Amino acid sequence: MRKVLVIQEDIIILKILERLVKLNDFECKSIKSIEDLNIEDQSKNYDFVITDILFEGIAPLEFVAQVQEVILHKNLLIVTNMGQDKIKREIFALQGVAGFFAVPLDLDEIEAIIQTY
Questions:
Q1: Is the pTM of this model over 0.70?
Q2: In the sheet where 73-80 sits, what is the strand order?
Q3: Which residues are CB-neighbours of 68 under 8 A, at least 6 positions away?
Q4: Can you tell me the distance from the alpha carbon of 41 to that of 34, in angstroms, rounded to the nearest whole number?
Q5: Is 67 exposed, middle or buried (0-12, 13-18, 19+ CB in 10 A)?
């Protein structure tokens, strides 16, 4: 079964994303921060990691680098309240980022991306 990891502090967005991926036949693990990962979670190879980039104490680009280093995954989707174009360009310049979505979310677009994999 295809697997998705959702990392999102905003509980409403977390639940929306969790439901979206489950409706598309993905196994879903949802956590509020990267500190909530256990060793087993880190060793799974996720088809997608869908994450925010706004976490206290860490810059957005540093957080993305940490996710890419710590969690085995094929694709990374950013879903965030931070809609700054500069950050978006910097994130897209990184390898392995499949999409960047700022709130308000376009769920149809997110769904289209996960369905293509």
A1: yes
A2: 27-31, 3-7, 46-51, 73-80, 97-102
A3: 76, 94, 95, 96
A4: 10
A5: buried
Those residues whose C-beta lies under 8 Å from the C-beta of residue 107, and which sit 6 or more positions away, are 16, 20
3-state secondary structure 56-116: CCECHHHHHHHHHHHCCEEEEEEEECCCCHHHHHHHHCCCCEEEEEECCCCHHHHHHHHHC
Nearest to 53 by CA among 33, 28, 73: 33
Indicate the CATH number for domain 3-116.
Answer: 3.40.50.2300
| pLDDT value, residue 51 | 98
Give domain limits for the chain. 3-116
Give the model confidence (pLDDT) of 92-101 as tens digits.
Answer: 888 889 999 9
Indicate the pairing of strand 46-51 with strand 73-80: parallel
Contact 74, 114 (CB under 8 A): no
- In this structure, are residues 77 and 49 in contact, taking their beta carbons and an 8 Å threshold? yes
